[in-house]
Amino acid sequence: MSPLVKRSKKIIEKSTPHNTNLTFFVCLGLVMLINVFLNYKEPFDSWIEIVGTVFQIAIPMYAIVPVLWKKDKEGAVQMIKILFFVVGVTWAFKLGLSNLVGIDDVRPRGGRMSFPSGHTAGAFSGAVFLAIRYGIKYAVIAVPLAAFVGFSRIYSFAHWPHDVFAAVILCCVGGLLLVRPYKKK
After folding, report:
1. CA distances for 173 relative to 59, 86, 178, angstroms
2. I want to staple 139 with a disulfide (CB 3.0 to 4.6 A). Which of 102, 105, 121, 130 is the partner?
3. Where are the chain's structural domains?
4. What contacts 139, CB < 8 A, 6 or more positions away?
5. Sign of torsion, CA 86 180 172 150?
6. C-alpha closest to that of 20 among 127, 124, 139, 123
7. What is the pLDDT of residues 86-104, one digit of tens each?
8. Other CB atoms within 10 A of residue 150 CB
């Protein structure tokens, strides 16, 4: 085994929710800094949308961290299940189910497929998974950041408030159906 692999294993074994949150913020800060240099001419309003888009991906990725350092195979399966459930139901609504139930809204800034908010659903799938599987101490950062994603979608006129709330409810229902609290073995 290489020294790098050994060192990585030691770091993972010593991880706690506190230093994992710190690592998350450092990585997120680096992503944001790179984004600053790539998009420095963008107005403030687009920054809110860009940050929301980054969090949409970052939160589910952050949710994978405790799964890995706890070596929680059952948690990995549950994470995959909630992601597939949320993505599947979201796209089922976007591709026509919303027409059947009479919620086929045009986006505030134009365009179709408004209901529900996919960005918000992606962010909250990770946050809800963390909260249910590992407890609120693991989700204390993810939940407010996921809420910011929802806010960013409304603020940037990409979605109506009910699109965002529907995505949050969808994730909560998916979490309650598919995710079970972690039990040490």
Report:
1. 18, 9, 9
2. 130
3. 3-178
4. 127, 128, 130, 131
5. negative
6. 139
7. 999 988 887 776 666 656 6
8. 23
